[in-house]
């Protein structure tokens, strides 16, 4: 399965949780670190983090991401889009490659 997630902290950050510039990038970086530490194939872009793996392992990582942000902010928005296609691996790159081939 492929999952694209976007996590948005909101509200006043808990004591000591805010970045020096008032932004939320520290909290988002903590969530991305969870994804990296998971060992699952992933990619980061300006709007989403894409993760590939089995349902239970991917959803466990998503929950951990929300938890680390929720430890810093009282409210967490989560946008999740999933492509559930059992039996297919390596789709993080393969889906893009199929489109690129048609553009050549």
UniProtKB/TrEMBL annotation:
Transmembrane segments: none annotated. It holds the Pfam family Thiamine_BP. Residues 20-100 form the Thiamine-binding protein domain. InterPro entries: MTH1187/YkoF-like, Thiamine_BP, UPF0045_domain. It comes from the Bacteria. GO terms for cellular component: cytosol. Belongs to the UPF0045 family. PANTHER family: UPF0045 PROTEIN ECM15. This is Uncharacterized protein, MTH1187 family.
């Amino acid at each position: 399965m492929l999952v694209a997630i976007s996590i948005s902290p909101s509200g006043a950050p808990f004591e000591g949780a805010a970045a020096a510039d008032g932004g939320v990038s520290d909290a988002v970086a903590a969530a991305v670190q969870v994804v990296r530490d998971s060992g699952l194939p992933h990619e980061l872009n300006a709007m989403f983090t894409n993760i590939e793996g089995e349902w239970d392992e991917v959803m466990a990582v998503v929950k951990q991401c929300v938890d680390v942000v929720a430890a810093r902010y009282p409210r967490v928005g989560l946008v999740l889009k999933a492509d559930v296609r059992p039996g297919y691996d390596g789709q993080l790159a393969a889906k893009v490659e199929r489109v690129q081939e048609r553009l050549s």
